[in-house]
Write a structure and sequence with these properties.
heterodimer, A: 360 residues, alpha/beta, Cytochrome-c3 Hydrogenase, Chain A, domain 2, 3 domains, six-stranded mixed beta sheet, two-stranded antiparallel sheet, B: Fumarate Reductase Cytochrome B subunit, 10 helices
């Protein structure tokens, strides 16, 4: 990986981060990555000595929510400082430069750090028409392919970049695809979520900085340490599920008592993410704690997997019209089969009667 | 499309169409069946007698006949027990009620899971016991055909997969969403098989008993 001259430890000291604060961050990241406590000195040492990696952040069909998730904090956090400590050479939303200067900065960074820089992508890539999403007149596919060529690894941040997300939802007007559909020869880490948890993004970056390699991934290319368990597995409302105590509406006694939201459409049992453990807003809470079921935003195709308020045990009935068509098709098929059987019996009976008549 | 999406979507729709088509076919087939006219003079005439005979047959054939009581009591009452257990589990498990509400537009309170787990375990135990008995009983074994095997196994499957889904057990290393999908697919398999196998007695059982009673009373036989 290519770095500029300053080391991360020096940079943090310059920014006034105390040794205690730095170790606190290292402990939090070591814990978040589920590493043994003995690894803390190694993480701290590696981070302190690490040189600032060049990072290029390419935004495509996205809503900037992922950037918001990472950068929007009530007070400057260590995560944010670490985020600033990386050499973020290209990020539309955050960088001061614009237009030709911004594009030049990206080209310069890519050339200077070829084969070594980290590429972060948020947003899906449209295949329908190159003009659907362009930067400086160049299509998303073109830009992504070019940037990926020299990247050491790609971090697909957010469900749009990881799995296509909302742009890919039916009817998918832009024919959106995730990064992995276009880039197949570079290691990709999917940090899904709409948006992803900031600590998860930071932990992946920290892991790469510390160990120089990507974390262990699950079948969907997500860091196992954060996406290994379902929301339901770690949900504080799980005991209510076990006892069969469910809220029937968002304002009934069950909801007030904090009972399980399964009947109200919670997708926690089929969603793998760290919301229930890492939580949001500096560990304040997560959607279920705020009284709303999980909508499964970290999973592929979450937008098209039935209503957010339909329980998992409810089939996709579709509209009343579709249901009527299904029932009508069943009745028509059954009636036709029955009429055919009746006709065959009539024909057979007549034949039998004729034969009897002939015999007599 | 994931296996869960398949189970909740196209597979469910297809199973639903087959179920409706099959029920319509079988029932309308019975209704449209050509019957020879019974020219004999009825011993007990009248529609009221026919209805009474039919109802009597429904009632009498729902308890073990006195002559066979000794031999079939076990099978008879365990049969009732698992039927009741199966339907109580289906109708009162919390996770099933949103499904019922999606069909009927309303539902009712669920039973506590602790109670239902006991009922389900007993139901499954009885079903397995009866099936094993069927496999080894000298008489039952002879009269058991493929229809029986399929019907019993498709009745057991939703219970086994349902318990696994409820308890978040990983069958063959499958994750929860896949276990849930297997549970739904097992129910869909049952829906598809229902009109074509012996399980169809759930639709025709009482009707055929009634019909038999009404026919026999005409001949003076109290079935």
């Amino acid at each position: 990986m290519s770095y500029d001259d300053s080391r991360l430890g020096d940079y943090l000291r310059l920014r006034g981060v105390s040794r205690r604060g730095f170790l606190k961050f290292c402990a939090a990241m070591t814990s978040a990555m589920a590493l043994a406590p003995e690894m803390l000195p190694r993480v701290a040492g590696a981070l302190e000595r690490a040189r600032r990696p060049s990072v290029i952040w390419m935004p495509f069909q996205e809503c900037t929510g992922c950037t918001e998730s990472l950068t929007r904090a009530n007070a400057p956090t260590l995560e944010r400082i670490i985020f600033e400590a990386i050499s973020l050479d290209y990020q539309h939303t955050l960088q001061a430069a614009a237009g030709t200067a911004a594009e030049q900065a990206r080209q310069d960074a890519m050339q200077a750090n070829y084969g070594q820089y980290l590429l972060i992508v948020d947003g899906s890539i449209p295949l329908g028409n190159p003009a659907f999403c362009t930067i400086a007149g160049r299509s998303s596919v073109d830009l992504l392919t070019e940037a990926a060529k020299g990247a050491k690894a790609i971090i697909a941040v957010g469900t749009c970049a990881a799995f296509g997300g909302i742009p890919m939802a039916r009817p998918d007007p832009t024919q959106a695809v995730p990064v992995s559909e276009i880039i197949r020869d570079r290691p990709i880490v999917n940090v899904s979520g709409c948006p992803p948890i900031p600590a998860v993004i930071m932990a992946v970056l920290t892991h790469v900085l510390t160990f120089g390699e990507l974390p262990e991934l699950d079948a969907l290319g997500r860091p196992k340490v954060f996406y290994g368990e379902s929301i339901h597995d770690r949900c504080y409302r799980r005991p209510f599920y076990e006892r069969g105590q469910f809220a029937e509406s968002f304002d009934d006694e069950g909801a007030r008592q904090g009972w399980c939201l399964f009947k109200l459409g919670c997708k926690g049992p089929v969603t793998y993410n760290a919301c229930a453990t890492v939580k949001w807003n500096d560990g304040t809470s997560f959607p279920i704690e705020a009284g709303h079921g999980c909508i499964g935003c970290a999973e592929p195709g979450f937008w098209d997997r039935g209503g957010f308020y339909d329980a998992l045990s409810v089939p996709h009935w579709g509209t009343l019209k579709e249901l009527g068509v299904a029932a009508g098709a069943g009745v028509a098929l059954g009636a036709a089969a029955s009429a055919l059987a009746h006709h065959k019996q009539t024909v057979a009976t007549r034949r039998e009667q004729r034969a009897e008549k002939d015999e007599t | 499309m994931t296996i869960l999406d398949l189970a909740r979507g196209p597979a469910f729709y297809s199973a639903f169409i087959v179920l409706v088509a099959g029920i319509v076919w079988r029932t309308s087939g019975l209704l449209l069946m050509r019957w020879r006219r019974n020219l004999a003079k009825p011993r007990v005439p009248g529609a009221v007698a026919a209805v009474a005979g039919g109802l009597r047959a429904v009632a009498m054939r729902s308890v073990p006949p006195h002559e066979l009581e000794k031999n079939i009591t076990f099978q008879h009452f365990t049969g009732y027990a698992w039927h009741i257990g199966w339907f109580v589990t289906f109708l009162f498990l919390g996770a099933h009620l949103p499904f019922i509400r999606s069909i009927l537009g309303f539902s009712w309170p669920n039973l506590p899971n602790g109670v239902l787990l006991i009922i389900t375990a007993i139901t499954l135990g009885i079903l397995l016991t009866l099936y094993i008995r069927r496999l080894f009983h000298p008489v039952l074994r002879v009269i058991t055909d493929m229809d029986d095997h399929i019907s019993v196994l498709l009745t057991i499957a939703p219970l086994v997969t349902g318990i696994a889904a409820f308890a978040h057990w990983s069958i063959f290393g499958l994750r929860y969403e896949n276990v849930l999908a297997v549970h739904l697919l097992s129910v869909e398999a049952l829906m598809v098989w229902l009109p074509f196998g012996k399980i169809f007695h759930c639709v025709t059982g009482l009707l055929t008993r009634f019909r038999l009673g009404a026919t026999l009373i005409r001949r003076g036989v109290r079935a």
